[in-house]
Amino acid sequence: MVQIDTGMTPSTWATDANNNIYELKGDDFTLVPGKLSHVTSGAAGVWGVTSASQIYYRDMVTNTWKKIAGGLKQIDSGPKGIVCGVSSIDQVFCRTGITDATPEGSAWIALDGSLKYITCGEFGHWGVNKNNQVFFREGVTSALPQGTGWKAVDSTLVQLEAGPDGKVWGVNSKNELYRRSGVSMTVPMGTSWMKVGGQPLKFVTVGKDQLYSIDLSNIVFSGTLRRVGAGPKLPVPQFKPPPLIGGPGSLPPQKVMMTIQVSWRSLSKPMVQIDTGMTPSTWATDANNNIYELKGDDFTLVPGKLSHVTSGAAGVWGVTSASHIYYRDMVTNTWKRIVGGLKQIDSGPKGIVCGVSSIDEVFCRNGITDATPEGSAWIKLDGSLKYISCGEFGHWGVNKNNQVFFREGVTSALSQGTGWKAVDSTLVQLEAGPDGKVWGVNSKNELYRRSGVSTTAPMGTSWMKVGGPPLKFVTVGKDQLYSIDLGNTVFSGTLRRIGAGQKLPVPQFKPPPLIGGPGSLPPQRVMMTIHVSWRSLSKPMVQIDTGMMPSTWATDANNNIYELKGDDFTLVPGKLSHVTSGAAGVWGVTSASQIYYRDMVTNTWKKIAGGLKQIDSGPKGIVCGVSSIDQVFCRTGITDATPEGSAWIALDGSLKYISCGEFGHWGVNKNNQVFFREGVTIASPQGTGWKAVDGTLVQLEAGPDGKVWGVNSKNELYRRSGVSTTIPMGTSWMKVGGPPFKFVTVGKDQLYSIDLGNTVFSGTLRRVGAGQKLPVVGGPGSLPPPKLQPAITPVGGPGSLPPTLPVPKTWNTIPLDPSIEKMVQIDSGITNAVWAINIRDAVYMLKDFNKWIYVPTNQKYITAGESGVWAVGNKDQVQLRLGISDKLPEGKQWYQISGKMKQIDSGPLGILCGITVEQKIDCRTGVSLIDPKGNGWSTIPFEKKPKHISCGEFGCWVVTTSNKVYFRQGQTQSTTIGTSWLPVTGKLTQLEAGPGGQVWGITLTGGIQSRVGVSASNPTGTSWKDEKPSGYSHITIGKSGVFAITVGGGVEHLPILPGVTTVVKPAPQPVPVVGGPGSLPPQTKPAILGGPGSLPPQKKPKSVEDEMADDSAVTSEEQKKPVEDEMADDSALISEEQKKPRPVENEMADDSAVISEEQDTNEMNQQRDKTMTNKKHRAKVKACSDNYTKCRIYAAHGMCDDPDSKTSMVEICPKSCKAC
What we know:
The protein is built from eight helices and 97 strands. It has four domains: 3-223, Methylamine Dehydrogenase, Chain H (7 Propeller), CATH 2.130.10.30; 260-497, Methylamine Dehydrogenase, Chain H; 530-766, Regulator of chromosome condensation 1/beta-lactamase-inhibitor protein II (Methylamine Dehydrogenase, Chain H, 7 Propeller), CATH 2.130.10; 812-1055, 6 Propeller (Neuraminidase), CATH 2.120.10.30. The N and C termini lie far apart (88 Å). The protein is flat and about 105 Å long. By secondary structure, it is mostly beta strands. The chain has a seven-stranded antiparallel β-sheet with strand order 78-79-80-81-82-83-84. Strands 57-58-59-60-97 form a five-stranded antiparallel β-sheet, with no helix packed on it. It has a four-stranded antiparallel β-sheet with strand order 1-2-3-4, with no helix packed on it. InterPro entries: Beta-propeller_rpt_TECPR, ShKT_dom, Tectonin_beta-prop. GO terms for molecular function: carbohydrate binding.
């Protein structure tokens, strides 16, 4: 045979060289009338095409061929309802309208792209183009056989087939057989290719448990697939398959299967720079700018002088110390001067040469061809680099700050590429070679290799540290590595790929495990843990601080000041309630909020104008603090000449504690929410803006190298992981076991904490790698047994925030009181709160997953999210719930907003969108923590008719009146209307998008589906997963899980199983908080003040120590005055409004007197009319008859307490509610 096909059904068909058609029955081919050049069999039937591109469908009832309009050269029948093919000019088409009634379909739909062969798999289409590149089609369903878009897949194949259960097999141009591994519904493209040994093959097809292939002589082989588990002995195979090699193309081996072993040996001559790359040729220069070519192990002198030389597929190039550029003519063996000036240059793949100038400008050479190998001109790229290297998949470079960047879109025709992307870590020099290899050295002269680089992931995934001597330069070739140590000795390193199970030779240098990257990156969670060896110190303290310097200071309960010297606390004259030590010096504040700076020359305290309750000395030149009313200030003008600075600058926002870290400020507000300040520099210590960070903490400290530690309200200790210069906010929190702590501070390699009894513990930080033995645990800070208390908490962070949404467990029924009757709508959103509405429009809030709290009001739709709790009233009015807090989760009252809506949804902070009565989509602008009501509406253009909208973490989703689904791209707090719409496969009646990008919906049959594959990079996901077949009318997804309403009005809950995530979520990028982390209104300009609450001059001069002692005693009337009063006395530097900020709820309540007693009574009367009808009152309160609306309304729900005032109904309704 020349072609054969099987697939979703046991049926197998084939054609021979004469276009005869056969059906395989058992092991025999049975001739079928007709002539076809290609035949296919699948769940969508048997189809075929002739050599003239005519299309036929096999009627299995009459056993005849039916001609179908159109022309294709190859066709494939896949899952039920899906048939696709390619034309003679490689256009791609899929058949629409295939049903049981019309199995031949109704029409062809053209897809974008060009393929020479296509196959329809269970999770999407696969195909190869004329260049043998492999592609995968996403979003394919029987209702949308054309799918949504193509994605390139690593490797090259000449033919492939996708079968049931995600199987994909193919052959390459060398007639080698490959199988795709890792394919699943959630990873439909799979992860890698496995080579399967055997004789040369030119064609393959795959079914349920059967494989058919055709060799070069047209012999057909039938292969039985067997899954063999670990342990049993395999029979002797006909062909022994080789190990995984990463794919049929140029992909390197998989990380999980291979390691890199470097065998080093030193070469004869010292060099300062060396280069190899896409060719075996290796060149170098010495300290005198002499040029050498490496031949064998010997450096051969080449005439000329260069400070840097490079060798690659684009030839040999070099630059002089005067930045002159030269190209090596390999025919005449002479140097040719090229116009321009560069300090460093790199020759990469064929046709690609780039370099950097003496002022770090970046240039690439264009016009390099076989005819003009020296190229024709230089083209300037955006950005600034001190070193560049041209790799196989793009350029890599480092800038003057040692930050690493990757250039996308590079081809020989477009050597300048399309744009830069920052890469985690810092390096001083790197080189990119063939097969995606990237190696580099950091400022500590440590060697690193980039892992995970491929055509589909050209930037790779992580850095691997490779042990050995200190190195300052590295270059990489096909299987060779060259490096230069600090003494200019050149080492030649042979790269060996060692597979799993192979025995490694004893290396000269044993490489350590992965630690997350070169430079300042912390260890990866999966490879490292932090072990703290604690020991208690002698004196009890209430506060301690260390940081950017080895100096450590502390205060006790009597405000005495101590400096820690060794393990002993040495008393220092004076009295402070808080002291801090950092690269910006030693500072402190008294209990009366006076500020002092320590003069380390005279060892005396100098009083600084202003008033703060807490202060922190951070990196050099940076000191910040918070006042007694939680205003935030940073000191300006700190220099070597004026180490105490010159003035205070007020920051927006409100914090109760601040810490100045290496990459920015960290702080917590009165609600224990954590915030990070971006844009902090010595010249601009106030930074540029706050960003919210997941988790809640009561106190935290940021130290050197990006370290951040904190304690939560449960006195548990946490460490922030993933902090680096490129990710200054880090990625997640790690819980560190030990006794309860109330305070923590962190230095270079030291940690200090204070327990509930004021005992100080000194903790030495040790990074413990996988496989290393931990010291004996059991003391303070020791990691507890995993079953009792895991060392790593879920990513959500410390405190009350839940982890990233994990895999659900089982559905539970939430009980309903008979008085509630039926629920009709429910919403949770990106919160823990759950609100619902019953059949009579009464509003309820869920408490403890088992009790519904009636919230006196009537609404027809309600929503809860980070943007607040909003509702649509019976007259389509929009309302915001005010006064919600931890103590009063149901809030106090409703605030009416302009606009008329049919439905509304509260999403991430700043995103609130709804469907108007005119069936338009409007989004609220200006919603923030400071202004939760926002400032207006903006309309999103949408040509369809929307009936439901839900705003999730990555954008809003819409269901139309025709039940089609759409997703809105590009929505942010500042751009609430987004940028464009994307259609999503499937039909739903209602859906909800929640945290982590999760999306759940109700199908046309009342079933439940969840969206698979949603991530920040792919916010629409890949496919729908069936969760429940039928019986549901409404659904919502929140931080506490999934809540669904049944057709009978009941509520079911799908709780969260802690610790297993289901949504692909990148390192968090929190929505910035406009105006700061607190409720203070933002200032239009940061005001330079004389000091945050500066005090008037003292009438009687005293010594500084006396003043401090007086502060501690607090005996005089002046000292008894609150610091706010003292601040008010200070030349009116801080206005009355700033001094006593009013809660935003009060400001809102005053706004146009929207909420009045009369409106409240009218609202209650409406509630009475709705809720009193057909209610089964509880016996003990049903007789309430006072002429007060609340008595009747609450009686209807059997309530004995007023949720607003927390007053007993006995007091509110004394005449008739004594039963309560």
